[in-house]
Amino acid sequence: MDLQSMRRTAVPLHAEVAEVLRHQILSGSLVSGTRLPTLHKLTEQLGVARMTVVQAMNTLEEEGLIEKHSGRGTFVKDVKRPRKHTLQLKMEISQIYAMVDHLKVSVRKKFAAIEKTDDGRYFRYLRRIHAKWGKPFCQVDIKLDDRIFEKAPERFEEEIVVTVLKDLGVSITKARQNVTISYADFAMAEALGIKVNSAVFRVTREFMDGEGQLIYSAILYYPSDLLEFEMEFTVD
Questions:
Q1: Which of 41, 43, 161, 183 is most buried, with most CB under 10 Å away?
Q2: DSSP string covering 167-221
Q3: Does 150 share its domain with 176?
Q4: Are residues 114 and 219 in the same domain?
């Protein structure tokens, strides 16, 4: 990972490191009590000087986001996170289908695994990068019921999952989607070819079956300059 090439112009390197960790703490990705990697580990992972990491950690400690314990390590503090106002909109499932129908993307990179959940069910976990217009368009983390995956494994590995579910006639009785603004960490910036700490749309999506069980979920990350949302309201 070449953090130097991914940093924003004129932003000090230690500030980029601190900003990534700050976003993760305030968003809840790094929960209270989490032990952060050692200075040596972070230095190796990011390919930066030890002093750069030290400066970043000192900044976060001054802000009250982390605390250092001699001999034990550095931990995330229990901090007050910003409250968000939620704008709730009702949509038909057909609108989600229509939203992805026009997307023509290719899978550039992919990773898949299978895991057994506590309730004895098996799920496929897929992480991939979708490309459009010749460049990375979206990073997707997918969790899909293995029984459904096995109905069309080749299609699920190469196509948009929502479209395949629709084509297979999989019964969906409940669905929800949430859109927030997030920020690219080091790995995501490298995967999507964007700058560290660039704004990204974070879309979480869940589909449930007739018994109320989760059969599909996904977290999608879009660079903010490649996506926009448009809503049209009917007026009585």
A1: 161
A2: HHT---SEEEEEEEEEE--HHHHHHHT--TT-EEEEEEEEEE-TTS-EEEEEEEE
A3: yes
A4: yes
